[in-house]
Each structure stands twice: as structure tokens, then as C-alpha cells.
Amino acid sequence: MKSYRLQLMVCAGTGCVSNHSFEIKDALEKEIAKHKLQTEAEVVTTGCNGFCGAGPLVVVQPDGIFYQMLKVSDIPLLVEEHLLKGRPVKKLMYVPPKEEAPIPKMSNIPFFSDQTLVALRNRGMIDPENINDYIARGGYKALAKVLMSMTPDEVLQEIKKSGLRGRGGGGFPTGIKWETCKRIQSDTKYVICNADEGDPGAFMDRSIIEGDPHSVIEGMMIGAYAIQNICEGYIYVRMEYPLAIKRFNIAIEQAKEYGLLGEKIFDTDFNFDIKVRRGAGAFVCGESTALMTSIEGNPGEPRAKYIHTVEKGLWDKPTCLNNVETWTNVPPIILKGAEWFSSIGTGDVTHDAWGGSKGTKVFSLAGKVNNTGLVEVPMGITLRDIIFNIGGGIRDGKKFKAVQTGGPSGGFIPENLINLPVDYEELTKVGSMMGSGGMVVMDEDNCMVDMAKYFLKFTQEESCGKCIPCREGTKRMLDILENITSGKGKEEDLNLLEELSNVIVESSLCALGGSAPNPVLTTLKYFREEYEAHVKDKKCPARVCKQLLTYTIDEKQCVEVGHGCGVCKKNCPDNAIIGEIKKAHHIDQNKCGKCGVCYDVCRFNAIRVE
Fold this sequence. Notes:
Layout lengths: L5 E6 L2 H5 L2 H14 L6 E6 L11 E4 L3 E3 L7 H10 L25 H4 L17 H6 L4 H9 L2 H11 L11 H10 L5 E7 L8 H8 L1 H15 L2 E9 L3 H16 L15 E7 L8 H8 L23 E5 H13 L1 H5 L2 E3 L8 E3 L1 E8 L5 E6 L4 H8 L9 E6 L5 E4 L9 H6 L8 E6 L4 H15 L5 H18 L6 H16 L3 H5 L2 H9 L1 H10 L13 E3 L1 H6 L6 H5 L5 E2 L7 E2 L9 H5 L5 E3 L1
Parallel strand pairs: 1-2, 5-6, 5-8, 6-7, 11-15
Antiparallel strand pairs: 1-3, 3-4, 9-10, 11-12, 13-14, 13-15, 16-19, 17-18
Helix pairs in contact: 6-10, 6-13, 7-8, 7-10, 9-11, 10-13, 17-18, 17-21, 18-19, 19-21
């Protein structure tokens, strides 16, 4: 055995929990007890480790040995070999394609080694339900520094100088928002953490909350101190995040027990408390005014922003709202200084708060990429570095086609822009956005018209219906896309889509409607030939839109290789396949429902799709 105590860090983020990581934890504890190794090793449950595609996973620290895709049946071997004999089990480990070291560690795996951790600084290193773990890694030191040695104005200036901008999508300079809220005269103010993460394929905020809830609490407390006259904060979490809600509540209670929430914190005159509010899952409640209306107990509908929420927000009081990732960036800025944070990223904020994209950004990397998961990278890194270095490239050797950033309201970025730097300004220039951090990768098998329809359908369904451009405009756009993908499109539809998009962008009440057309606009811009193939040729180049496909049987292949097996005929739900056993079969196109079942069940490559 090692001379030091080993810690077996079991990922207990939602992804790994759904893959039975708690059963892995129980099995480890039983095996350790069986071999009486409690003094040599302990099992610790952590938040999301980030490498979600490899879960359930266990990291043995301080050795940095990374075990992936574990099953309960693997645990006896792991304990016997690694803990008893000191020999890591390589067959249970993640081995990078170019790994040459006999025992690859986390530091050698590009997914981990090519990241820069600020918001995710405690990722996989602490038990999120144990405040002592957070304190042991410097937790609440920033709060102590602020309360003991900094004035509210000094805190504001530090945040402004850092160049921190809102990570929820808008990218508004955080220090300016705080300063504006501080200037408003009121006996009551509020701070809010927006954890209503509703983007398809996005799980950044959820993972931070589940893995490091105290970092969010500490950031909110520092913000409340800087803005002044704030005694209460709210964390708005969507109902679909039960584990995040549970860990937030545990963290709040622990902070109160330690005297870090409530009255006279650190024996000062600073009083602050936090309450958790659960959202009902409406995507529009991610918008600031709709979120505040929901907290008040009313239907989540946005309002026009001629009056800003820093002036009149929650219950018509000055309110400062930032998202999870923004708040969790605050403590390290206070501890390490604004110059340290602003040295990461792009641009210059010396004379212009909007003049750069500073620090890091957390992305949920999903879609047709080998290494799916949660990544944190410095602003200015290229899309290529994220997708091909950290993400490990496209699955199954397929060709990269596009990536969508910014969630359902973001834009699609094509292969010829793969070297684009990732920051607020550069993404906006090409028609996309930073958003909250969703990043969905597509390959050659994706139909871009179908993808645009998918995301527009989502935003159309999530529209609150308050304003006509969003409610009616997105519905009309969706109808046009449905026609195009079903073979009923007309050439004039493409210009109509662009015209409708521009009207909706200019006249919608809130950002949901104002950004909903982005997927359509960018696919029209970068993949117009696919639209034209759907409209003019009635073909789907990616073979995704079923109404535009034609299924036929290669009769020679059917007889000579498949011996007329009849499996396709047996499984056809439309009874469209004609033929006898051991003879050639063919498809009656008048009956064919284009379901693709015949293609799926044929084992002899006899079904042709055009």
C-alpha cells in the first residue's frame, strides 16, 4: 500500500448517478471493509467530474488515476489490484489514442489537460454536501477578505477591472451592473442567481450547482456586500434539477450553521440570507423579467425593458441578477485579483468594459463528438481546439459539418469557420452567440434544415405567447420548414423565411423571440444549398427528412446475398414489400410510408435509400 491515504473520488453528478454511480460507491465501500482497508483508503462522492461520456467514473487521488465506464462487477478487481497490490487496472482506465505512458493519468488526458479551470476549480475534488471540503480548498476566504479589509466600492472596482461579463448569454459587464444597482436609492434590494438552465443539451449550471454549491453562495454574498442594502437573495432553479436543489439546500443550511449566512457574518454588520425558488420548467423564465415575475408567484412572462431590473426588478425593488457561472467566478477574482483574471481571454477592458472577453467559459460539449461532457476553456480558444483536441474529434470517423453555440437561439457555424476564436464578439459576427454555453456538434449525417426546424420548434413551443411577433411569427416559420422537409416547399419560401426572421428579431418583446430565428438565418446563410435541394430537387442530401426519401431493394443483392430472406417484408408496417421467400423482393412505392424499418432490419445491404 501507499504511505498516504488514497481517496476514491466517485462522480455523483446527475449523468453518473443515472448510470448507477451510487451503486459503485456502495460496492467500493463494501470491498474496502471486506479487506479492512479503511485506514488506507476512503470513498468520497463528488459533483460532476466533467467527462460525462466516460461515466460512471472513479478517480483515485492523489495518484490521478482515472477509471471509466465502471460496473459493480469491476469493483473487486479494482480494489484487489489497485488498493491491495498497488497496480492500477489499465483495462478499466481511459486510454487516449496517442497515449504512450504505461499508466495514463488525468494530467495526460487531453480532455482534462487542455482545460483552464476557474468556475470549475473544485470539479471532482470535493464532496458538495460537505462544507469542510469547500473550506479546505480556500472556500469563503474571499468573503472573509471582503468583509474584513475591503469597502463595497473597492469590491466593485475589482470586479469592473477584471472584465467579468455575464455568463448567462447577454455578456453584460458584471461590474457595471453591480455599480448601477448600488447607485439606485432604496431601503431594500435583492440579488438573484439564475439557475433556470433550459437549453437543450446544456448542463453547465446544473453541474456547478451539484458539484460546488458553496462557490455560488459565496459569490452572491460578495455581490450583496458590494451593492449594499441587500439582506436577501434568491436562487431560481428549474424543477427538473432535483439533485441540484437538494445540494443547494444542504449548502445553505451548512452555511447558516457555520455563521456564514444570517446576521452579523464574521462578526460584522453584514446580514444576508438566501432562499431557493423552484421554477416550473418554462424556458422563457430564463429571461430576467419573466424569472422575477415567476418568483413573485405570477405566470412567467417578460416585460419590456425600458425600465431595467437594476432599477425596478423583484417586487419593483432594485435587483441584481447573474447566472450560476458568473457568481462562481467572483470569489477567485477577489482572492487572486482583477489582473490575474483579465490576463486570461481576449480584448482590452482598460478603457471599455465591453472591450473584451476575459476569463474562461464553461461549455457543455454534446452531439456527434467523441468526448462529451463539461469543459472550461479560456476565452479566445478556437472551435477546432475544443472539438478536436478536448472533444477528441467526430465520432466514428465522420466528417465535421457544423457546431451550434448558444443554445436553441444560437447559430450554426460551418466547417470553414472551425478556426474561429470563441469569444462574445467573434461568435456574434458570424450570426451565433455565446449564450449560456451550449455547444452541439453535428456531422455529415445531420440535415441542417431539419436541425433548424428542431430548434425553432423548441423555441416556438416555449414562447409565452405574450407578443405577436414571437407567438405568430415563429409558428409561421415552423410551418414553412415543415413544408420544406416534407417535400412541399417552394423557392419563394427561402426569401419569406429571411423576411419573417428579420421582423421577429426586430419586434419581439424579449430575447427569446429576438434570437429564435438565429438557427434558420445561419443555416440559410451557410447551408443554403441544402434548402435548395429540399425545395428544387425534393431531396434531403443527408437522408434525414423521411418524406423526401425513396426506399428500393437491390434485387440482385437480395437474392444472391440475402437469399430472399423476407425479414424486410415481415417487419414492414405498411405491407408495402412484395415477394416470396428465396426470391427477389420489391417495394410498392404507393404503399411505402418511408419509415425506414426495412433499412434497419436488412442484414445484407440490399435496401437502397435515395
